[in-house]
Specification:
This protein has 368 residues and is an alpha/beta fold. The chain contains eleven helices and seven strands. About 5% of the residues have low confidence.
Length: 368
Amino acid sequence: MGFLYVVLIIYATLVGKASESVSAPAMFVFGDSLADSGNNNYIPTLAKSNYPPYGIDFPQGPTGRFSNGKLAVDLIDHYIKGRITLCFVAELLGLPYPPPYSDPSTNGPQMLPGVNYASAASGILDDTGKQYMGPIPLSKQINNFRETASRIFGLFGQNVTAMNDYMSRVLVIMSVGSNDYLNNYLRPDLYTTSTQYSPLAFSNLLVQQIGQQLLALYNTGVRRFVVYSLGPIGCTPNQLVGQNCNDRVNQMVVLFNSALRSLIIDLNLHFPGANLAYGDVYGIVSDVLINPTPYGFSVSIQGCCGVDTGRVQWNCIAGIAPCSNRNAYVFWDSLHPTEALNRIIAQRSYAGPQSDIYPFNIQQLASQ
């Protein structure tokens, strides 16, 4: 009974602190390497980034984040919880960000401020990324969330009222789908999807799957969602044609994003009591790539770290020093953003206009 009392006090404090600005006691993250905070460190997969120079600008060094520093979801978590709450959580639980679900130490009250389920190389489809062995697909991430919810319910002493209140306030962030193209549809040497589906049919298949997973989350009691579009994958260093964006790939991405935006609009009409936002990463990143100078960037067609193009074609070579002017680079390796670009994505989706995130931004969503 004493332990339950402590848990409820922690939850009440989180809600109270957060309500000074917004009302979201927890953030749960789903997705791929753009959101993975270290889950792949604990599973048998080849898709890892827990070595230098990854994390060169992150306080804890290489943690499994695919960037030089913070991810967009790290920065959004900071904005949502506010400096006061963030310091409170860090002091009380030692968790400045939602911890990776796969980390064995992630348990008990540590889960109350949120958990990260994202897994690098994973996708919407279970088969995506199989060549990397073992990434956690979106469907499995949702199942892991159900397990977390069950454990949190136990922390609340099976108190249905407290649990329902908690679940209705938490924020879900989802950023997934890039690998369904990069490590599935665009790899006919390994997958048959490009012969089975037209680009339009494939985009519809992916978005239908996302809709099913969002429904599964809704049925657990979650009511606040942010679902990010895919960025302009064809403009990443990995996909460039010479020094130009791969228009064929970007056209596929646009089909997916259009279907996803329509899904979010539809679910807002058909999920009673729920609020879902569509984050336009494609538009935000395209703005930067079209006119990088006002954002402080001078390099947008190559990654900051050294990449072995003959082997894996995307990740940093271990032990090779990256560029020194990292804030000037849009991309960290040949696929992933630098912290500087992640910060722009986080800022514009947190407080931006409807052209960046629709129909409301994260600040508005978390305050409802």
